[in-house]
Structures are given as C-alpha cells and as structure tokens.
Amino acid sequence: MEIKFYYFCFSVLIGILLVHRCRFSQMLHPIFEEASNVIKEEYPNENQVVFARVDCDQHSDIAQRYRISKYPTLKLFRNGMMMKREYRGQRSVKALADYIRQQKSDPIQELHDLAEITTLDRSKRNIIGYFEQKDSENYRVFERVAKILHDDCTFLSAFGAVSKPERYSGDNIVYKPPGHSAPDMVYLGYMTNFDGTFNWIQDKCVPLVREITFENGEELTEEGLPFLILFHMKEDTESLEIFQNEVARQLISEKGTINFLHADCDKFRHPLLHIQKTPADCPVIAIDSFRHMYVFGDFRDVFACAVSSVPENLSEAFCQYCYLTVICICKLCIWHLLASVALELVGSQNGCTMKLLAVTSQWELLKRRNSTCRTSGEDKKKKETESLENSSSSFLTYILENCTENSIMVLTQLIQPQDRKSKM
Q: Which domain of life is it from (predicted)?
C-alpha cells in the first residue's frame, strides 16, 4: 500500500522509503512486497501489521519530516510512533518476516516468583510492573510502552498473589537502574495516562548521556542531532560521572536538540586524530556538528561557567578558533566554543529559516538552516531574512525580537574586532 500516514491505527507499520530511480530501491521493492504477503497470512487482521511504501520523489515532505537522506530506508512505526532504530538486517524475505515476528512477540517477561528479581542482570535497566490482573487498563498502557521501548530496557511484570507484596498502595511500576547501589524509583503518575507513563519510562530507559560505539554510530547519526562527546578511557569512570552530572545540571533543557554521548578513547582514536588529540589527552570534550569538530579547551573548565552568566574570558577562548562570533548561547557556554556551532544546537520549532550574516572576515557566522524563531508566514520570513543582509544591527535586533528567550541568549552588544585581539 502507498503510505497515507494513518499509521496511528496500526499496531506495527513498517514502511519502505524509496525513490524508483534508485537501483537499490528497485531491488528491494519485490522482496518487501513478498515479505508483506508472508506476514499478511500470519497476521490477517489489517490493523495488526501493515507494510507501506513511500516514493520520496513524489512525497519529499515525508522524507524531510523523517530526515530520510539515503534510499531505500526501512522505518518501523508502533502505535503511531516512529522507532529510532531503522531496520538494518539482511534484505531478504525471511529476514524481514522474522523481524516483524520479533516485533510482534511479547516484550514483557512475566515473573512467577518475586525471588526471580534477585537474578536479574543488573548491568541493564529494568522496568517492573506490579499488577492485580493482566486484563486491566493499567497493564495495557504498560504493554504499549514496553513495545516501544523494549530495545532500551528490560520489561518484567507480576500479577495477582505474586505481585501482592509490592502492591501495598495499588498497581505500580518500579525502575531498577544498573548496578546494585542505586535505589529503585517508583512511578507516581497515573498509570492509565499513556503519555505520562511513556515519558517517565523513556526518561529512565534512555540515559541522558549515551555511549557511542561503532555498532550504534550510524543509528545515532541518523537521529539528525549534533553530538556533544566526552572521549575518555574506559576505566576513567570519574570523568564520565562529572560529565554526566554537568550535562544534567547545565544542559538538561537542550535534550532533544543535541545528543550527549561518551566514547572510549582507545576505540575512537581516528576521530581524536581529527582534532589533533590522542588517548593520552583524554578526557576530551568535543562538538561534532557533522561538518566540523570543535574541542572544548580544558575538561576541568566544565565547572567554570554559571548558567546565568557569560564568563569574562569567553571571547578570549573564542579567539583560539577559526570562526569568531558575536553570539553566546548561555546554556552552551560550558563548551567555550563557537557561537555559530552553538546555534546549530538550537532545534527548529517551526521550520523558520534564517540566514546569518558575515559581520567581518574575522567574525564570520556560519549559515544556519534552522532557528527557534517564532516568525510565521513565508512572505514575512522572506522579508525579514532580506533585512538581515543590510546590517549586523538588524541581525541582532531580529534575534532579540524573534528568538525563543529560554533557548538562547544574545549578547546585547556586538563584539567589535578592535575590542578583542584575535589570536588567529
């Protein structure tokens, strides 16, 4: 079927996004069709599993919405939500059919004795639901969440007499974090509220700072967000803990506009070479905007910047880099990096496009496709974008008047080249 985006009606939807002029799309299409016929026989209910295709030449808006840049791409949707992990398995009828069968399997392991909890793998993130009965709205919501997040957490459940010791105040959900020392956390929201339950469990299952590996690197890249990476030695858990704490303290509001990651210095020697570093220099913090990599000066300076103010030496730190700019995003000043890079980290809220100005050859701003501007209307955007080309003061006024205040802070004065001596 051609995808029409009524996919919220379906339990599982797998979509192939292709362009017919692409040879690989042409090769996969018949395999995809045959796999859909196999699955249709096993799951005859039309709302259980749906295979759909999108011709991205005809529906470029859909390709842009889901950041599809290579073809063919196989995306999975569950209950209307697109899964971050696309299908990367073998492109055969059997492999595709097995993948769907796996997606349709029960993601929740039932406990028949609470003593089984003592044998859980505590290196993983475990979510345990305690319910009076399986046939309940509380459990149905829990099951929906588990089907979406089962790749990120281990889900378990207990019912009736088995779960009674843990249901002293009614049905509940407990998160057991990795390790044996961290305390359990109990969900205090309404268990029949899907959004509340999903958001709470997702927050526990998907850590704020994730590890990047060669296995998940492409997957993380396809999320379309720039990286803030801590390179550290595997045994250096202290630096990782500091980084995690400072990200949580200073940058929690930027979650969703940037991926916070950590990487093993030994395994990622090649990326370190791009920034003239070796494992001996670790820990190292860098931003990867997919166009450039920028290094944070000194790991110890992660404590140096208060969220509510810009450090006096910020412009001096900027002078060490090729591009010197006039804007500081306060919550990103932890990095002492280019403001133009910082702008790349501000997510688009309404697709407003803004052309940044080159103030001088020494204080050049990079072009930015997206901003948090509240401007609406194509004519208005075009007119205001043209006004940016007239003067740097127009640019500053435009930012101050139209950009989301809680996302960025603009310095109230342009830093003129003569005010700061460049070290370039």
A: Eukaryota
Q: Give domain status of residue 172, yes or no.
A: yes
Cβ-count burial 316-346 (b if 16+ within 10 Å, e if not)? ebbeebebbbbbbbbbbbbbbbbbbbbbbbb
Q: Which domain holds residue 283?
A: 209-303
CA proximity to 83, closest of 91, 74, 92: 74
Q: Looking at the DSSP assignment, which residues form a beta bridge with residue 126?
A: 154, 176
Pairing of strands 185-186, 172-176: antiparallel
Side-chain-side CA neighbours of 195 within 13 Å: the count stands at 0
Q: Among 268, 307, 264, 260, which residue's Cα sits nearest to residue 287?
A: 260
Is residue 115 located within the same domain as residue 51? no
- Dump pLDDT digits (tens) for 232-288: 999 999 999 888 888 888 788 777 778 899 999 999 999 898 888 999 999 998 888
Q: What is the DSSP letter of 98?
A: H
Neighbours of 1 (CB within 10 A): 11
Beta strands in 99-221 (DSSP E): 108-110, 126-131, 154-159, 172-176, 185-186, 209-211
Q: Which of 189-198, 206-215, 237-246 has the highest mean pLDDT?
A: 189-198
Whether residue 173 contacts residue 142, with contact meaning beta carbons closer than 8 Å, is answered with: yes
> Region 95-113: what's the mean pLDDT?
91
Q: Could you tell me if 81 and 40 lie in one domain? A: yes
pLDDT of 396 higher than 50: no
Q: Where are the alpha helices (DSSP H) in 206-321?
A: 217-221, 237-250, 269-274, 314-318
CB contact set of 349 (below 8 Å; sequence gap of 6+): 372, 374, 404
Among the candidates 158, 180, 205, a domain finishes at 205
Residue 313: inside a domain: no
pTM of the model: 0.61
